[in-house]
Amino acid sequence: MAKQFPPKISSILMTPDPHYIPGYGGYCPQYKYSVGQSYGKLTSKLLTDPGIARSGRLILQPTHLPAPSIDEGTNHQLRSCKVSWADQKLNDVMIPGYTGFIPNMEHYFSKTYTKTCKDAIRQFEREQLKIATKKRELELITSLQSGNRKARTEQEKKLLTVRCSMPLRPTGTSIPPYNSPYSYKALGSPYLMANENPHKHFISGYRGFVPRAQFLFGAGYPIITNKALIEFSRVLNRSKTSPVPVGNSLKEGEGLPRIKSACPLTGMCCPTIQSMHQKPSFNLGTARKTISATH
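RE: above sequence
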């Protein structure tokens, strides 16, 4: 049985086959009666112990992985483009866990990380080669039309028949600038917009203060802020049109109250407060005179 499974790198560091990996939920004979070892070592001992009754056929089967296919053309392209990519750390074998940017990687999925990166980098390299080819073709057309180089092949002779001459020259001197009707325009502050403007509101998530919005509820944030800003604009316009009182508001002959009676200070007497808290005095002689007069 042991011959079916090839030996690993080290029998000391690695658990010998056959064994179950931690997390396996299947049945293992005599597992619940054995303790004192890790899951891998314990299952390896139970599966190879001849004194334990078990099935003669293991669930685990030896696997022979096919040799990875090597695309020499792709690897050659990736090795040739390392110089032009400068500091970009893109190669033919990307290690899982790399957090850098991989161009075109969002278009590939359902594969391992290494294969996904290889396909994405391959497409990126093809796009770069197309761009470089077109750039060299434009340089060749310029040199042929200027006479710096003579046409040698049929393809170069066809390039001479190009209608446009390189480099392209401007056809006019005073060309009016094009202003797109759909270009971005700053809307400005909602406080300065007209009340009929549909954009007179704050977007959801705005954390600033909106006047009079605390009294409104039961609707979405844009609707609430729109109503609050409209009400605030009305109050502000009303305050601008109403006259502001100017001058002395006191009537003729009316002055400020006396400080002594209005604001009692330390060490000063307040007649009003003193009269409120003064206890009445009792005179016995005055009381007798009053009683005798009544009788």
